[in-house]
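Minutes, project check-in

Agenda point 3 was the complex the collaborators sent over. CS summarized: two entities, 590 residues total, and the question is how they sit relative to each other. Sequences were read into the notes so everyone works from the same version.
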Amino acid sequence: MKKKITITLLLVVVFIILGIGIGSVFISPIKVIEIIAHKVFGTNLSDGISVSEVSIVWNIRTVRTLMAFVVGAALSASGSAMQSVLQNPLASSYTLGVSSGASVAASICIIGSFAFFGILTLPILGIIFGILTVFGVVAISTSFDKNISNITIVLIGMVMSLFLNAIMSVLSAIFSDKIQRIVLWQMGSFSGNQPIELIIVTVLSLIGIFLLCVKSRELDILSFGEEQAFSMGVDVKKSKWTILILAAALTGSAISFVGIIGFIDLIAPHVTRKIFGVGHSVLIPMSAILGGLFMVACDICSRVVANPIELPVGAITALIGAPFFMYVFFKKDK
Amino acid sequence: MLKIKNLTTGYDNQIVLQDIALNLSLGENLCILGANGSGKSTLLKAISGILKYEGSILLFDKEVKNQKPIELSQKLARLSQTTNVYFPHTVFDTVMLGRYNKLSKNVFEKPSKAHYEYVDYCLNIVGAYELRNRKINTLSGGQLQKVMLARALAQEPSVILLDEPSNHLDLKSQMELFNFLAQWSADKNHTVIAVLHDVLQGLKFFDRIVLLKNGIIHFDGDTSQVQSTKLEEVYDFNVTQYLNELYNKLNQLKHT
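CS then shared the predicted structure for the full assembly.
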């Protein structure tokens, strides 16, 4: 186990350095390390490094790559908690429509140029709308089907997403002058984020992931179903809603500055379970780390695949994620 | 130990059980029998605190519905008919979850050695120790039920509730399960309350029988006092004749 964790962490470092180096201008990993060391520890730079390289690494790509990592981590931790609490391997903030809920919030902000809470407006609205959506989906699902089976929740989540997307279309049609920004947000991208945004998302994500870790024992028990969890002493209603709210809030805040990025919260937890097992004390932190890793890799892909054109990273994750979703949905048990 | 009075309960607007009264002392083993829809499982759910109810269910002199799940879980454990395995925990981890109500509140603290030993002890007594490192999705139905029994025992309850525990077990596993539970309750002066479909198992392994019919207790008494007419009334057909026909078939089997 320790070995696996060490390897994963090493991979994270490698991918982050690569992520910072790769792009329209390639900067070698050694230069990247030198520049970061220079900025963080004040070491001297060697002669071959230009001012523009320093600026690209420090001002643009470091923020971008770390943003990708943090968002990936938050989404994946949120996804693994949702899957366990709903005993549903297809549940995630994306399939439950939480992302669409948060994007409606973002559109409203963009349209109205709202900033009630300054820079925190987007994350706060994202959190609120994310939580409202998950309430809606679970409440509607429960009213149709007490056991909240796989199919019900996926269908209701899909209906909810479509409904919220329709609201987005209506909004974009009415406020057509803002349409480009809304569409760009919906596609999801890590380019052009401010350092302060990175700091906000990082702080919120760390809090969210930590709180989910605190719930790891209850998550273990809830993954056996609600009646069994109750008889083992878990206050099911309270735990379930706390976890769902935490997970939705984590997603809502994570995507508030970067737009919709789907499927990573479905894939990373599955892969993590395969490698690290299903106990949540390891699953939650490790799926966060693996999710961050995947996201950095996808972000690299988005810059490299159609170079010099940059693809939306949300498209990359969906291209990989949609077939994966089919695989999980149709594969027989085991 | 268990005192039920004026119990009325059900789902949504449908009343399933009406005006149930039942007293049970520690060490007694109760089997609840009755036709489908008679309210057997509902009674079990009410006792375990899952279901809201009117009236009173006193467990060790405390009202069940006023107790927190964690408090109830230290007195009652429940073994359900089937366990859906959504995520492949290991057998050991699964049984350790039964210790939830005993572990320290700090989730970052590892369970003490005593907890590990108790889990091993529970796995041992149900005969599942050799499975401890297996993933639960690789177990057979019988093995899984043993693991779930070990998890229930890990809660250190004084009462175990069973809802049709033998439905998915082969005959030998059924016998082992009921023998084990009878021994467990006799050794520790603990109580088993089971809902069964198999009348004969009820008669063989339990001291006391409650027959439910349409949400009302039709018979309550020692196993030895159950009359065949009562069974016929509850199941609404000639139970004894049917069981005798089955036994005749069994006796006709060639013994060589």
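Noted in discussion: Chain B has nine helices and ten strands.
Follow-up: revisit at the next meeting once the mutant set is ready.
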